Amino acid sequence: MYFASDNTGPIPQAVLDALVQANTGHAPAYGADPLTTEVTQSLRDLFEAPDAAVFLVPTGTAANSLALATLCPPYATTFCSPVAHIHLDECNAPEFFSGGAKLTLVPGNDRMTPDALRATIANEGTRGVHGPMRGPVSITQVTEAGNVYSLDALNALCSVAQEFGVPVHLDGARFANACVALGCTPAEMSWKVGIDVAVFGGTKNGLMGVEAVIFFDPDLARTFELRRKRGAHLFSKHRYLAAQMAGYLRNDLWRDLATTANARCAELVDSLSGIAGIENEPTANMVFASLPRTTHQRLMAAGAQYHLWSGNLDGTNPDDLLTARFVCDWSLQSEDIARFHALLRN
Amino acid sequence: MYFASDNTGPIPQAVLDALVQANTGHAPAYGADPLTTEVTQSLRDLFEAPDAAVFLVPTGTAANSLALATLCPPYATTFCSPVAHIHLDECNAPEFFSGGAKLTLVPGNDRMTPDALRATIANEGTRGVHGPMRGPVSITQVTEAGNVYSLDALNALCSVAQEFGVPVHLDGARFANACVALGCTPAEMSWKVGIDVAVFGGTKNGLMGVEAVIFFDPDLARTFELRRKRGAHLFSKHRYLAAQMAGYLRNDLWRDLATTANARCAELVDSLSGIAGIENEPTANMVFASLPRTTHQRLMAAGAQYHLWSGNLDGTNPDDLLTARFVCDWSLQSEDIARFHALLRN
Amino acid sequence: MYFASDNTGPIPQAVLDALVQANTGHAPAYGADPLTTEVTQSLRDLFEAPDAAVFLVPTGTAANSLALATLCPPYATTFCSPVAHIHLDECNAPEFFSGGAKLTLVPGNDRMTPDALRATIANEGTRGVHGPMRGPVSITQVTEAGNVYSLDALNALCSVAQEFGVPVHLDGARFANACVALGCTPAEMSWKVGIDVAVFGGTKNGLMGVEAVIFFDPDLARTFELRRKRGAHLFSKHRYLAAQMAGYLRNDLWRDLATTANARCAELVDSLSGIAGIENEPTANMVFASLPRTTHQRLMAAGAQYHLWSGNLDGTNPDDLLTARFVCDWSLQSEDIARFHALLRN
Amino acid sequence: MYFASDNTGPIPQAVLDALVQANTGHAPAYGADPLTTEVTQSLRDLFEAPDAAVFLVPTGTAANSLALATLCPPYATTFCSPVAHIHLDECNAPEFFSGGAKLTLVPGNDRMTPDALRATIANEGTRGVHGPMRGPVSITQVTEAGNVYSLDALNALCSVAQEFGVPVHLDGARFANACVALGCTPAEMSWKVGIDVAVFGGTKNGLMGVEAVIFFDPDLARTFELRRKRGAHLFSKHRYLAAQMAGYLRNDLWRDLATTANARCAELVDSLSGIAGIENEPTANMVFASLPRTTHQRLMAAGAQYHLWSGNLDGTNPDDLLTARFVCDWSLQSEDIARFHALLRN
């Protein structure tokens, strides 16, 4: 009953196998190895983007911060949701990598709306050299609150960005879960709706630590390479990043893993329904649900692991409704959900 | 005959086994897992430093840059050799992580001398707010030119640093190779000679990508943690860094791997002797040797892989002596050296 | 009828005289001149702070950004109003000087409330290394919206900062106008209510370009000095900054100038009352007032100069109420206000 | 007998007059005033560069650092002399403003040679993403050691830069003194020899604190403006920078001041000749000369003010030759030199 996060589970055997397979003899360092070349091509194929510039980095924060630094000069600002990971959970990494650019929060909660985005961008560009310049829009898919933008919604946000001539970054730490939820292809969820740079996350969906950053406009590639190196994110033994990604792409493993995770979440939602208040649209692998404090106490005492998102376990009123976040990773079994189900109804 | 670098070889089976072993069930993220706790303690034991603050990061550049940023404020300078990796090969990463601190090169070549270091530090501190403040000394062991500082030499440099009240950082990308060459313990090669922060490298000695940064003064730990996070080097699935390091430490694997690499290098030196001009004191795993252009052409044509360090293969004079760098990693076999030996004497 | 800003007027004769007086012979550079020493002491006396560290810089943005960089490490955040100058009007200067620290906006409008500040700080410190660390609170007095915090209000905000152990910065670009409005001393409006670092602005109150930064805890002085130098804000011919400040302090000129500016504003408020909607509490030298579009068109056509704060002059509806900002500087005459009064009522 | 620096003297009456003249009524802020427009045009005329982008900043460090930041991305390096002011005397300001770019020192002493520059640039660009990218060349004229590059020498250095496609920055803190020494026009000493961005210094030649930065390629102007603002170097009361520069340009005052300073230096050189060892080619306003320790002691005791550049006054051997730097500013009189002459020969 481990619902604390999707960065806490094991890696699939197929990924381990890919590591073992890559582990023979010597290979050129820093991404000049054949496996990296192969994986780069596989990602271009997957995204139907033959000219894309593709990079592997070890963490989601690196992927986001390096991509944004490439798009956002230090005297500009990135537009994002007030609950975006880049704002709340990266200890100023975007500000660091960009050399001091700002994040401008689009009013609202979780999913940005085109109107709020338009008003925010419009307002930011009116102070000449006194305010920051308009920089990229950053969209998170799946959002931090477990919601999934529809393709139309993504397209509408990208259209707003285009009105102002600013590029769009997609934080796709849970790219696969969103693709599965929408039943679409990676291309449909990225450049076809207007995304300029997408992060295709692997770490939360089964890898030890690999994210692909995909620039659909390869002209941006050269400064990314230099920023990756000076950010200390260029692996010398790059084949081990490539091997993980190779295992992830082979036979659409990435999609299978996300399908499983989303399915577990759907079971969990079923289990919570009627008992808990569901607070998001849980079509991917996360559900936010409110339950009375006593219920949380009982669940956790019995070994369920998850994070409270509001309130705390030790309050005085047993009936207070506390919101919790439940995340399902690929390694959960239906039995785990069933045990939780039984416990919840006990 | 792969002597191009020690970041191009495979990882030992014992490290793969440790990964497999760690790959069960869920584990808390960001270093809160039991394996990270265990490895932290193992490193404290290995370094005989019960209070040390220990951090794992994925690359040597991250280890060096983050450690130096902790020691060197942006208005200061780090003292290092003109051929230091931090100066030549990290695309300004130390300047980036420190927020714009400088590197001051100690005149000389490769190994710094106490006199040159003293004169350089003394000179740097004489301009009030106009020049940079004196920051840390950074020593590389094994050096970029394949030499090994004796313990006395390290101690002499650290004593100079102490004269000026500045801390000392050890770039130990090849820490293990140096330890084996000197026949000393990690403690003897670090805090016992006066090192304040040591990088205990794993990547060049058999790991996929893990370096330990060890602060003997734990007071520095908190800002390192924050810098690691905002530098995007805090792994969520941290157990896979820890697992590699666990495999590396178990049964002194780290020492065995370096012993093997150094032994191969010694065989290579024997092989080169009398034919090539040996340009360093090759007691660790690197030898720099000069050979006529034609010999290089013949060796490379036959499949020997290594880097020329001066000149280039296509010059007109066949007799020009060109210096090459030969690096031995743990995975080379005596047969590799024997083949090279035969080829060289052919 | 020039109400556009208080950075557009001339400098008083007494300040020019002080420049002329200082302009004899040679004087040591970089602040080692006797006049700088004298002015430093005068500021300590004025603030009743014999140990204070005092620095002169040429712009308000420099004063704020350098002070905040001293208080806020790059992995932390500064708490401020959503309309703070440091957030809206400095083109990311605080982010630049701090090396990428964040600004966290305290919900509300203009003046921060203790409750909102407390909730914001409390919330920011709950994510371990993932979120930014808590940094300083920055208070603007007079606020950007022309309001003045009472001494009790300042004290309440500083008390909240003390609850969390974070320091307080005062953006005092209009320090003098606030002091006059409150009828208090500089000490009462700074360290006596809990301010740690105050900017004592001169530029908006009659100087060509000088602000004093006053650290009541001199331990912070050394890094400020270095930051000022590397920020290129240490003047070689420092006596000309000192001379301006000397003229400003002599015979309480600073207070006289602000008294005059505030008095003009009070006359302007009288003039606007009954006709315009007054939107702030205009006890200092700024009034925000709403008037119909046609009135603005008429006023501006007749030569009144001021900025619209909302809406724009060319809209279709003549009756729309548009907010304007009127700022009075020391050089305005009662005749200017009288002309405006007549025009308004024409 | 004040030869300590050219940043310690008074400002000419004509500059004060220009300040007084500018000090009437209100004027738009941030450089939108008519005087700034006029001065911008005057500088374009003076440099025979009708399209040039022109900016005023208050310090030489600001001028250099902002100009270099515009030319040098954070993953690149600037090539300069080992004794360049940007390297030795700006407390890492170039590294700060560029976001962590490096300075690469061209071996030699003081004036760079084309061969040394070519070899240094060639060597820097050979490490792919591992080393920094090639950035601008920075030339100082008059050099820190008081020498003046000939126009041919400048042209030769710029030609080397062009070979590699990198731009050239001229640190012209003593631009006027060099122009006078060479008997050339500003255009001849800048874009006509291949300079891309020139700093036309005013502070060391009589202003309180104004330097003009002149981009002969105006495409670079926009990012400079933004960098100036976020570096806190955009003056609100910009007319007072413009007024100083207006006074400086009117009737070629800049040239007259430098002519006077250089003439005083020539008299000083005459005075030193035969007694002291002259160590530079003192055609501008600085002479480096060696004298016995006892002579220095005697001169300083009698009130001569200048800096020792090597050794120190309190050594044991009275006959040691110590090098001193003597700088002449525009305000020195022939009588000052005559007094020094008499003293020296006493």
Characterise the protein shown here.
- The structure is a homotetramer of 346-residue chains.
- Chain A is an alpha/beta fold and 346 residues long.
- Chain A has 2 domains: 13-252, Aspartate Aminotransferase, domain 2 (3-Layer(aba) Sandwich); 254-344, Aspartate Aminotransferase, domain 1 (Alpha-Beta Complex), CATH 3.90.1150.
- The first copy, chain A, is built from 13 helices and 11 strands.
- In chain A, the strands form 2 sheets. The first copy, chain A, has a 7-stranded mixed β-sheet, sandwiched between helices. Chain A has a 4-stranded antiparallel β-sheet with strand order 8-9-11-10.
- In chain A, helix 8 links the parallel strand 5 and strand 6.
- The first copy, chain A, is globular and about 60 Å long.
- Chains in contact: A-B, A-C, A-D, B-C, B-D, C-D.
- The interface between A and B is large, with 50 and 50 residues.
Question: What portion of residues of chain A is helical?
Answer: 40-55%
Q: How many strands, which pairing sense, and closed or not: the largest β-sheet of chain A?
A: 7 strands, mixed
Largest interface: A-B, 50 and 50 residues
Radius of gyration of chain A: 21 Å
**Which secondary-structure class do the elements of chain A indicate?**
alpha/beta
> Based on the structure, what is the oligomeric state of the protein chains?
homotetramer
Mean pLDDT over the full residue set of chain A: 97
